[in-house]
Amino acid sequence: MTFNLKKIVAGAALALGALTALAADPIKIGSILSVTGPAAFLGDPELKTMELYIEDINKKGGVLGRQLQLVHYDDGSDANKANGFAKRLIHDDKVDIIVGGTTTGSTMAMVPLVEKANIPFISLAGAVVIIEPVKKWVFKTPHTDRMAAEKVFEDMKKRGITKVALFSETSGFGQSGKKETESVAGKYGITLVANETYGPKDTDMSPQLTKIKNTSGVQAVFVFGLGQGPAIVTRNYQQLGMTLPLYQSHGVASDDFLELAGPAAEGVRLPSPAQLIPGKLAANDPQKPVVTAYAVAYKTRYKQDVSTFGGYAYDGLMIAVDAIKRAGGTDKVKVRDAIEATKGYVGSSGDVNMSVADHMGLDLSSFRMLEVKGGEWAISR
User: Fold this and answer.
1) pLDDT tens, 183-216?
2) Distance (Å, rounded) from C-alpha 229 to C-alpha 205?
3) Which of 164, 217, 294, 376 stands 20 to 30 A from 274 (CA)?
4) CATH code of 247's domain
């Protein structure tokens, strides 16, 4: 038997090259975000955050010796587009994990696809329907709409407010928020004496607000929406001379809301993660170093203020990376199990402790009640 040494060496070199290439294959993180459209002020900082930290992680050697590759699509705030892009991420791009949708509508359009394909999915949207009932492959980083309603009602109860007008957006987030608000009102002794809605693309909400203004007994107004709509409501509120306490949901927890609403935002109260107020947290607050470092990194890179929405993306990415490390690779079942086992992660949104029964891992104490004072966010007293 004779051997061709050159062929053996060449074959070995090819095999080694193939193994090296395989080892160096990037970890593909898929993302569908609303970078344009009505939800752009949520999706834009989410994308910027993902790009910032993926670049930073790669500069430091990646994850398990592999670089991260972001495969991103902009759904334009359109849930139908999110569904199509999810198919592309799963079947064409063959991503290892998905972080984002931005909105509840986009997220829920993706859920059946990721569940069928067994792809770990960490949503950045707010509605409780995303994780209740628990879906095996679906997780989320923001607080739920039910938690937002409860935090607002806690504050109202403390102030002796019992009769409230609810004003909700007809989007997926707004309608889920409406449902959850209605479901927990009685628990806090709150009666909804008016219940109005507006469309996410509406440019004047004065007619509905006039009805609320003329409703007998209203002590406060609670707006449940996201994007530009709640800012328009706030400006209309001032234009109509309404002086009752005005509450918003965490769907507007961003400096963009202050800019859009202008002076009319003064006195508005809402529940928010700590990300909006890093400089106002106590020195011993465990979130302070996390939210401060994120705020510095984001402002340095983009010359813009941070938002809670970018913070949701930060948490989603970090939870994903930590799970991949603990799983020892990108085996989807192992990564899913590792996400579900996340405990003691202190992030932008709070202290995260997930379980088989809880695919979010936050409690009500991780929400801060904020108030607009002097055109800035302040801790509400």
Assistant:
1) 999 999 999 999 999 998 899 999 999 999 999 9
2) 9
3) 164
4) 3.40.50.2300
